[in-house]
Amino acid sequence: MGHDQRDSTIDLIWAHPLLRAELEIPLEWEGSDHLPQMVRIHTETPKRNAAPPDWSWKTMDKTTVQVKGLKIVPPGGAGSIKDLEEYIDKLLKQLQGIADASTRKKGPNSGFEQKWWNEDVGRAMAHTKAARKRHQSSRSDRDFEGLAKARRVQKQTISKAQTKTWRHLTAAASKDNKKLWDLERAARLHGFKPREAGTLPPLRKPGSMGGLTSKFDEQVDILSGKFFPSPIADLSDIPEDFDTRLDPFKGKFAINRKVDETDIKAVLDLIKPWKAPGWDFLSAGFLKACGKPLRVALTEVVEYSFVLGEWPKQFKMASIMVLPKAGKTPEEKTLLGAYRPIALLSCMGKVIEKVIGNRMMEATETHGLLPKGQMGNRKGRSTEHAIRMVVKAVHTGWSYGAVATLMQLDITGAFDAVVFTRLRHILWKKGYPMWIIR
């Protein structure tokens, strides 16, 4: 320790051999037993990447969002897809400004994203931080005791908040079966395991002799090839320009292109508010809080997309997150089959996609384009209906003295192998107008 019980300065300096360094030795200081030295290292400070504009939505001030949301105005006219995309860019910038004014940004280890975080926890953490700074500055016994007390209070406050949150979760789960199963799944998959590192382990390259790689670019290429393959298909029966030479607004049947604000509100009400947002970091709960002005603006965006028969580029983008599958060993985690992708889309884009999806399903049901026995993705049909139908078929067979056999097929990589040209051609042959297929 140096003078007045303060930390002493560092006596030695280590530098990388590739760095260009200069050693300066000034004249000896009178009355000192040390020879002061100064080392100059010529290098540039690396620039830190800009942090993404991610917000802690738990801290959102809903009143501020509603007040500032009143300034949102609809497009007011879009003669081309370029005009519409320029408006969406302005709208996104305005919404991000509203988010900045109403919601705290996420920071490293801020704790805001934890379910148990509240204002009491925030104040306790701030007091601990201030006490730590006082102790580092003075090194006195009094400030050391103050720091120890602040740490105890912070620990007690966090424990109390965690207990309260857990009780609320279990109380809600007792009234909602879905939440109960969510708790069961979280406890089964993650409750007994330490938190996994946020980085990928070395991945094995494709091929029988493939080695391991930890290089980021190579891992991206390997995972992209796995998640987004280019399937080979015979498309000789499909004209190359079939989707461009046809009248986009003609088909075997018409689909209603009129959209009103209630359509947007109905979709927003169904979307879970605080699920992971897309590349723009704007959550569905924030969009709901913006109120009617944003719903009116999105209504016009949808209508212009329908009229133009084109989809804005901002809603075609997605952030791909790679998640490890549960129960994999360290050795298995080097294989591509141990991971699955999820695509995080813009919540505004998902709202518009849902409106289009609803229109397509209405036309599908109205014109009987699906087999009568299909259960998946159909309104009014659930897993329970499917089980009841199978049980009834088995009992009917038994009543005639027949043997009932159930065959189940699980097609591996079905979605990965979809050929989009073939899919568009099938939709056109079914009768959908080309504007909605595009």
UniProtKB/TrEMBL annotation:
Which terms are listed as keywords in the entry? Mitochondrion
Where is this protein localized, as stated in its record? Mitochondrion
InterPro entries the record matches: DNA/RNA_pol_sf, RT_dom
GO cellular component terms listed in the entry, alphabetical order:
mitochondrion
What are the residue boundaries of the Reverse transcriptase domain, all occurrences included?
304-438
Where exactly are the transmembrane stretches of this chain? none
* Keyword Phosphoprotein included in the entry's annotation: no
Superkingdom of the source?
A: Eukaryota
The name this protein carries in UniProt is: Uu.00g112830.m01.CDS01
